[in-house]
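User: Predict the structure for this protein chain, please.
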Amino acid sequence: MASLNRNQGASPSAGVPAGWETSRAGDAELSNFDLRDALADMTVRETSFSEFLAALRQNGQRPA
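Assistant: Here is the predicted structure, written as structure tokens:
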């Protein structure tokens, strides 16, 4: 069985913070986000698959 060689002597960079307080960029921007307001402003309607594909293509997406 082959062993994994990791840089055991290498120390983590002191300039790069780690942990939950720096988990995602932009978390501070989302602190004022209200999901209920976002959901209240949302409209859901039934659509055909061809209309769905057309909307994807219009927004620059290429379905697989």
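The chain has a mean pLDDT of 73.
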